[in-house]
Amino acid sequence: MTAADVSVVTETLPGSQxxxxxxxxxxxxxxxxxxxxxxLSQRVRIEGFRPGKAPRPLVEARLGPGAxxxxxxxxxxxxxxxxxxxxxxxxAIDRPRVEIQxxxxxxxxxxxxRVSIMPEVKLPELASLQxxxxxxxxxxxxxxxxxxxxxxxxxxxQPVERPVAVGDIVVADVRVLVDGEExxxxxxxxxxxxxxxxxxxxxxxxxxxxxxxxxxxxxxxxFPDDHANPAMAGKAGTIEATVQGVKExxxxxxxxxxxxxxxxxxxxxxxxxxxxxREDLEQQAGRLDQLSFEQAAVNAxxxxxxxxxxxxxxxxxxxxxxxxxxxxxxxxxxxLDRYLEYLNKSEDEYRxxxxxxxxxxxxxxxxxxxxxxxxxxxxxxxEVTEYLREEATRDAEVEQNLDDLLKNPVARDxxxxxxxxxxxxxxxxxxxxxxxxxxxxxxxxxxxxAE
Length: 451
Fold this sequence. Notes:
Layout lengths: L6 E7 L3 E8 L1 H16 L14 H8 L1 H23 L9 E6 L6 E8 L23 H12 L4 E4 L9 E10 L2 E2 L5 E7 L7 H6 L8 E7 L13 E15 L5 H7 L7 H35 L6 H21 L4 H8 L3 H28 L6 H14 L1 H5 L1 H6 L1 H24 L5 H5 L9
Antiparallel strand pairs: 1-2, 2-4, 3-4, 5-10, 6-7, 6-8, 6-10, 9-10
């Protein structure tokens, strides 16, 4: 019996799936039944007969038609489906889902199979994409804000006997309460709280000024859903600060002497330091603008691309993200089910929240992979080696293990994948306008699984 004797009809299904309708001729079905019964008869113990010597009708009666049919299905269906996929060059990305319509001795077997495949990705004409380039202007206020931040490094702190003012540092005992009960391990004694925007939560920033030593300052808060402590995540609570002391921060003016000290002697005047700060901010703004442009280019090509993301890949990405969360929770001695209980979420709700991000990540990966194919980007071994050496100058861990990484095929494949994505991004940005600079160095806009 050859593969040609099996009838296979394929059809394209939604969701990047292929359906197969398969019919196996009667003689092949009968031979499978005979082979299965011969094997099973060796295992069945029937009184008065040695193993394998009992009459077949007795063996069939002892096993029952359902059990025999299941064994035949196991022996027949999987090999036939596997061969059908191989003969038609169908590369499945998940296990076939099989439904048996008919499987009886003396009759042809009929069943269907459905598998997911990598989708066809239709890319837009890159030159037609409209991607706006943001250009940030560095103004005097930004320069002065950076200079103020630098001057704070030389600030002198001294205790004062007066109510708290914005900019002060408060020494306080802090308690955290949820449902009226103090949360163990979250409180602090004699901790310093800087009463400044970005240094303390807005509720305390608004409440602390005007209070003096001995005052108890409670504020109502809602903790974020992703709080590290599950007992607090997403819940309403109270942070209670008892003022134990007040310190004033005295920040020096920007004199030539201060400028020289702040720059380690590199700039001997306030104006020279101000000019250097402006130049640094302009360079940073340029890098951020470039990153923004690169991300916009990726978003534009992904949005314009046509593809049907397979559910199998989405499920795989969701499983990967869930595994990562379980490992993080495990390091804290927590289980996922308990964590979801703290968040008051069911597993279905958690998965529903994961799905959009998982699908988005897969979509980006598939589009960038197709871009790489169309651009015929295949880094050479020398390029991978050079990229690894460059990474070692930016990453201490890579530098420490560089010799081993250079020899390890798995590690080289990992960095080859990263380099390929970087080159794809560089080619994409060049085609929609501009040169890739920042992200090619940092890999910050490469999609979900670039690393």
